[in-house]
Structures are given as structure tokens and as C-alpha cells.
TrEMBL record:
Pfam family name, one: Glyco_hydro_2_C
Alphabetical keyword list: Hydrolase
Name used for this protein in its record: Glycosyl hydrolase family 2
Lineage start: Bacteria, Thermotogati, Deinococcota, Deinococci, Deinococcales
Residue ranges occupied by any Glycoside hydrolase family 2 catalytic domain in the UniProt entry: 304-516
């Protein structure tokens, strides 16, 4: 039975206005956070009425984290949550309104009950869903219970970097179970815009808008879309809507000159965002109003170059795993903004999100701050029909959720053959790599796809390499020219794997050194792991300047067209971040930024005076 039903956290937000970024930034209406103290149990019962809620947990933090107040890993994979939601008068839904409870993420499987009655089931720890609580909410309050099940050792589901053992090991970290993203309340009209997706076309100077309504439109339903910049309306279109799923091409007035066109284009150095309003009417009466944003940009390749808006744009990325010591995988608006802005301060123009599908607010800050993002599917580690089915559903849901963010320039369905451990010998695993590449391209032809990042590539839009050699001269020799890369491809087996399979050649693809570095600064007497270990901040800085000098020189020599340094911040036992896990820089930020951008590093860097650099050395 239910012993306690705490109200939503007393100090939680109780108004519909918030200074925080909306938890669904591409389509916003007034909202209220339901995060706070909930009743909690690790009971294995199947119905909330049979559960003894004997403690509390702070949502949205996983029970494994200190911030949850539970900080336990021995929960057995069965987690129960319960709270009562008291509504203000303006929150109670009227006859033509709906009240929705949104869950940003529940790992792995969730069953939701409203006032004790089963309401919905959802599977997938990285994707959002909602529950309609309208009927219960009309009485002014309701109770909601969530049963989250997450088998700790299940290798069939996308785990990313979550360990399947009792304790973190190697490069795998504590698990994240149950509710781990914001839970929030939204009141909507019965008929409303439920989903939007944007596809820019800069060649035709137009935007394709796809919308999905909550239900079939009544006769006379119209959708008005306004796109504006700094308050000036650039597009104002009104169209009759006859079906739930509706497409509309919105064309900008073409200024006809590159300088004026470029002012409307998004790049990391010029992150131009366009404000959007959606107004849904029936017979001239407004029934729904929502806001969002979009951007104009294109991603492609040309020969061996990564092209942004049709022009070469060398990528300077940093690997980001998105963990915090107190909250695990769960961030908040302030932390997302800090990370995005600090990545820019360190001189990078992009970020490779590694083995995590991040909260939509992080992508929104990348949209605003200006970061080119590689978005990656967290890996499962078993290969069987069940894992393929689960990966497919998860990936399609992620693509749907994230595809409108202009910051995302590349999709990564597999990393280092994780989940495809026998690619070199098994036809079915090779076909899986091809299938996920094709599926991703079928869903989104406007971005690049790294089919299996790092090695054993069969199909890919970019030739990606992971190389943690600490010698900067070797890095330059291996990647300083197309000829050197071709030779390296046959000589270097990163991680003991071939770089490519079945004759794939990098000649007509951009070559991206998508993992390198991994320099750990671990003072004497402290423990931690990294690819290269140094003891002081000065040595870290000099080593970073040397490695970045080499890869930036490889960019100058047209061998590489991008890199990704490992990594932005420490992650538990992995201590190779430029910042520690509390986000404190380990070295002078300005020196790091100059080295990242390929500007003259500190004179103490001996590589700058090396004749071997100028003349070239063999790999």
C-alpha cells in the first residue's frame, strides 16, 4: 500500500513562466516542472496499490547518483515512483483542453499509472514520451506512479557507457536507472500541433516544414506559420490543413547576393537562428499557439572536404560524454549552457556526443552558442534479433526527436564495432552496419553518417580514425597528406582492427581523426586512467599544444579535414579531460584555445622547431 504521497517538491517551480530553456525547445508552450521529491520503492510488485513506498527520491536523478538522495546500485532493476500533483485553477483542463505529463527519459522500460489505473507503457531509456492525465486532472489533483524496470546486466538494450557489472570498470561507468530527465506538465488544446520537423534547402532558399496534429483536423482548419529574425517577419504563410500530417514549403525572399544570403545562414561562427510561431485556427478562431525556432544551413562533402553551406569547414571537435559526479547522466539548463559555452571558449567549433543521447536543451544551447554536433546512438553489446530490434526503434525515435536541431551535422549509429564484435568475419553483422547506415540516410539525407566510427568501416560518408599515439610527429606523418593516410590505412590497426573492410578507400571522403589525445593529468599519489598520463598542468598544456599543433598542421596540408580530441571533462575513473568532473579547467583556457584553433602555441613547445615536422617523417 501507499504509505506516503508527497506533493511535488515544495521548492519546485509553481508558475508557468520559467527562465529556464523549455524542455522541448523546438515547440514551446507554457510548462511546469514536476521534478522534486517523490515517494520511492524498489518493490517488485506489479501494481502501485501493492507497493510500500518506504522512502523518497529526488526526481529526475537516477537512484545510483548522490543527488537522488538514494545513492544505491543494489535496487535489482525494479523502481517505483509516486507523487500527488496539485493543480492551480488555471492548470485544470477545460472541456476542449488536455493535460499532459511529459517524461524526458526513463531507463529502460516504464509503466505509468494515473490514480491507480494503468495509463501507458514506454520502452526506451533515451527517448521522451507523455501521458494524457486529463480525466483525472479535472478534479484539481491527481496521483501518478511509474514502475521503471532496468535489468542491470541486459546487453540487448542500448547501454552506452553504463556498466553491466556490479561496479564501474575500464571505460564503463555507473548505471543510470529509472527517471533521469525532467518530468513536466503541459496544458494543450484538444487539437494542437504535436510535432514539427524542419528541413532547410539553401540552394532553393526555402524550408520544408512537416507538422503533425494531435488528431484529425476539423473542416476549415488552417495553420499559420511566421518566421522572423530580430522581430522582422520574413515569411508569413497560411494554409488549409486536411490531414494530421501536413507538409509546407516556406520560401524566403531571395536577396540575390551572397553577403545578404549568408547573413541568414547558420554556422558555428555565426549561429543565426530564426524565430517561429505556429497558430492553428478553425473557422477563423484560434485554437492553438506555439513557438519555436529553425535555421538555414546545409551539410555535405566535396571531394575530401567537409562542407557547411557549400564551403569547406574544418571540424575541431571535442569528445563529450555528459556525466557529472553528483547527478550522473542528468544535467540541467545551467550545466548544458556552461558546457556548450566552455567548449567554445576552449577553441572548439563542435562536439561529438559519445554514447549518449543528450537532453534536448543541450542541443538547443549548441544551436545558440554555435557548435557542430555529431549525435551518436548508445551501443548495445549483444548481437541478436532482439538487440537489432531495440536499436532500430531507439534510433528512429532519436532521429525523430532531434532531426530539427541545426547544430547536428552528423549521425553515428555505431562506434568501434560495439554491438558488432565480429564484423570482420560475420556477414550478418556487416549487413547490420549497412542497414543502419541506409536507414539513417533514408530518414535524413541532409546530414552525414559515420557508419561505424573509428574502424572496420563498410559504408560511411566520412573516413574516421581513432588513434591515441602520443607522439605528435607520428600523428603528422600518418595524417599529413592523402598519400600518408592511404599508407596508414593499411599499416595502422587501431584497437587491433582494420580501418576499413571490403576495399573501402578514403580518397573521396573527408578524413576525420575522430578520437585522439586522451592526455590525463593525474598528480602523484592519485589514481585514475588515461591513454597518456602526465603529472602537472604545465606538462598537460605542452603535450596538448604539441598534439594539436600536429593535427592542425595536417589540416593545413589537406590530409585531415577534422579532428575530435578526447575529451572535454573527466568521467569517473577516466581522467583524460581538459576539465575535471566538476568542470574546473586543468590548464590555462586561453593557451588551450590557441592550440585548438591552430594558432601559434607557447614557445616551450619543441615541436614547432622540429625539422622532422617540416620535412616529414615516416609513420
Amino acid at each position: 500500500m501507499i504509505e506516503s504521497l508527497p506533493d511535488v517538491l515544495p521548492d519546485a517551480k509553481t508558475t508557468w513562466a520559467s527562465d529556464e530553456l523549455h524542455p522541448r525547445p523546438m515547440l514551446t508552450r507554457p510548462w511546469r516542472s514536476l521534478d522534486g521529491v517523490w515517494a520511492f520503492s524498489t518493490s517488485k510488485q506489479e501494481h502501485p496499490e501493492d507497493v510500500a513506498f518506504d522512502r523518497t527520491i529526488r526526481v529526475p536523478f537516477a537512484p545510483e547518483t548522490p543527488a537522488s538522495g538514494v545513492h544505491a546500485t543494489d535496487h535489482g532493476g525494479s523502481l517505483w515512483y509516486h507523487t500527488r500533483v496539485e493543480l492551480a485553477p488555471h492548470e485544470v483542463p477545460g472541456p476542449d483542453e488536455r493535460l499532459l505529463v511529459h517524461f524526458g527519459g526513463v531507463d529502460w522500460k516504464a509503466r505509468v499509472f494515473v490514480d491507480g489505473a494503468f495509463a501507458r507503457e514506454h520502452e526506451g531509456g533515451y527517448t521522451s514520451f507523455f501521458v494524457d492525465v486529463t480525466r483525472a486532472a479535472r478534479k484539481g489533483s491527481f496521483e501518478i506512479a511509474v514502475h521503471a524496470t532496468d535489468e542491470p546486466g541486459d546487453l540487448d538494450v542500448p547501454r552506452g557507457k553504463q556498466t553491466w557489472k556490479d561496479e564501474p570498470h575500464a571505460i564503463w561507468y555507473p548505471r543510470t536507472s529509472g527517471l533521469w530527465r525532467t518530468v513536466w506538465l503541459e496544458k494543450v488544446p484538444r487539437q494542437h500541433v504535436a510535432h514539427v520537423a524542419w528541413t532547410p534547402n539553401i540552394d532553393r532558399f526555402e524550408l520544408l516544414l512537416r507538422t503533425e496534429l494531435a488528431e484529425l483536423p476539423a473542416p476549415g482548419t488552417r495553420l499559420r506559420v511566421q518566421v522572423s529574425l530580430h522581430g522582422e517577419v520574413l515569411i508569413d504563410e497560411d494554409a488549409l490543413v486536411r490531414t494530421r500530417r501536413f507538409e509546407k514549403v516556406l520560401r524566403f525572399p531571395d536577396p540575390g547576393i551572397d553577403a545578404a544570403r549568408e547573413d541568414l545562414l547558420w554556422t558555428p561562427d555565426h549561429p543565426r537562428l530564426l524565430d517561429v510561431t505556429f497558430t492553428l485556427t478553425v473557422a477563423g478562431s484560434e485554437i492553438d499557439h506555439a513557438e519555436g525556432y529553425t535555421a538555414m544551413r546545409s551539410v555535405s562533402t566535396g571531394g575530401r572536404r567537409f562542407l557547411l553551406n557549400g564551403r569547406p569547414y574544418p571540424l575541431r571537435l571535442v569528445l563529450h560524454q555528459g556525466y557529472w559526479a553528483d547527478t550522473g547522466l542528468t544535467g540541467d539548463d545551467d550545466r548544458f549552457r556552461f558546457d556548450a559555452e566552455m567548449i567554445r571558449r576552449l577553441g572548439f567549433n563542435g562536439v561529438r556526443l559519445h554514447q549518449k543521447v543528450e537532453d534536448p536543451r543541450f542541443y538547443a544551447w549548441c544551436d545558440r552558442v554555435g557548435l557542430a554536433v555529431w549525435a551518436e546512438l548508445p551501443s548495445a553489446y549483444a548481437f541478436n534479433p532482439e538487440s537489432l530490434s531495440t536499436l532500430t526503434r531507439t534510433w528512429l525515435d532519436c532521429l525523430r526527436d532531434l532531426a530539427s536541431h541545426p547544430c547536428i551535422v552528423a549521425w553515428v549509429p555505431f562506434n568501434e564495432s560495439w554491438g558488432l564484435p565480429d564484423l570482420a568475419t560475420r556477414t550478418d553483422q556487416r549487413e547490420a552496419q549497412r542497414a543502419f547506415y541506409a536507414l539513417t540516410k533514408a530518414f535524413d539525407t541532409t546530414r552525414l553518417v559515420s557508419g561505424n566510427d573509428g574502424w572496420e568501416q563498410l559504408v560511411t560518408d566520412m573516413y574516421t580514425v581513432h588513434d591515441y599515439d602520443e607522439d605528435p610527429e607520428k600523428l603528422l606523418a600518418r595524417y599529413g597528406s592523402p598519400d600518408a593516410i592511404r599508407e596508414t590505412m593499411w599499416k595502422l590497426w587501431p584497437g587491433g582492427h582494420r580501418s576499413t573492410l571490403e576495399g573501402l578507400m578514403p580518397d573521396e571522403r573527408p578524413v576525420i581523426l575522430s578520437e585522439f589525445g586522451g592526455i590525463s593529468c593525474i598528480p602523484e599519489g592519485e589514481r585514475g586512467w588515461g591513454y597518456v598520463v602526465v603529472r602537472t598542468s604545465d606538462v598537460l598544456t605542452s603535450a596538448y599544444e604539441a598534439q594539436l599543433g600536429a593535427v592542425n598542421r595536417a589540416l593545413d596540408l589537406k590530409g585531415l579535414h577534422g579532428f575530435c580530441y578526447t575529451q572535454f571533462a573527466d568521467t569517473y575513473q577516466e581522467k583524460n579531460g581538459l576539465l575535471d568532473m566538476a568542470r574546473l579547467p586543468k590548464a590555462d583556457v586561453e593557451r588551450i584555445a590557441r592550440a585548438t584553433r591552430g594558432q601559434a602555441p607557447h614557445p616551450a613547445n619543441p615541436l614547432w622547431y622540429s625539422p622532422r615536422w617540416r620535412q616529414g617523417v615516416k609513420p
